[in-house]
Sequence to fold (329 residues):
Amino acid sequence: MYIGEIATPKVRGFWGNFMSIFTAIGQFFINLIGIYCNTRLTSYICLVPSILFIITFPFVPESPYYLLMKGKEEAARRSLGRLLRKRDVAADFEQLKADVKRQMSETGTWRDLVCIAANRKALIAGVLMRCAQQFCATGALGSYTRYIFEESGGDAESSTLIYSGASVIMTVIAGFTIHHFGRKKSFVVSMFLCIACILALSIFYYIKELQPQVDISRWLWTPLLGVTAFTIFSSFGVLVIPTLMLGELFSASIKAKGLTVLLSVMGLTISLSNYIFYWLTVSYGMYCPFLVFSIISVFLTILCIYIIPETKGKTLEEIQQILSGNVRE
Fold:
């Protein structure tokens, strides 16, 4: 939300991806530290970046959008100049002021979230992306990585580190490249490639669990390859685009309520997908959740093609006009 408001359209994709980059870095270091440290020491180590954040964040400039919403025009002008690193921000400020004024003309009630066309389309697109993200097994793979590798008969500890390390590398690379491509195209292509990966995992576990006469001793590396490939492909779309677009979809008046709903949906879909993964694995075998998730993901990806708007290179006001149907993509 904050990055969406302070970054220019040209670099919003680059900076918006930093949340995903640091999430991947955090997961890698937790896996690495967990090998050598006990739970208490690991918790103390994890306190360090949180304390640094609390100390440094008050020095970050406030969003000009937020300041204008609160009627603090002079503070908004100074913040905009600081963010754009230039003194003459008159034209930029007047445009921003007009955009915020139009968006704040909406009452911003919960009813507006579903009754105003632009807000409704933004909400549907956001919910759809979060559902697609989790039901292509991103959350389940993150939660059950060690278990998946143990079930395949490989070295779970080393494989988990390779998986999380690959996630860091590819997310960083994606941060420097994803802003060159459209959000929608990146997400859809990434989804189809991830579907291919989890389908391959389903086939491997089907043979391992239901075809015992087949010798798979030479193919025990398949889960590591499949999960690593999944990490690579998801880093260029599935993992980052839903988070990146959080601050782009909603107008200023309804943004807080829209993000509240989407974050709630995210928590719900993570819990639900993890539970379904566990239940299907226990009931039918490891192949089943990957097969079910791949089928669901195909359906959700097709919906995404028709529903998600393209936001690359557009101002927040232009995105609202597209969602309202006043401007074509």
Notes: DSSP finds 18 helices and no strands in the chain. Residues 147 and 173 are 28 Å apart (CA to CA).
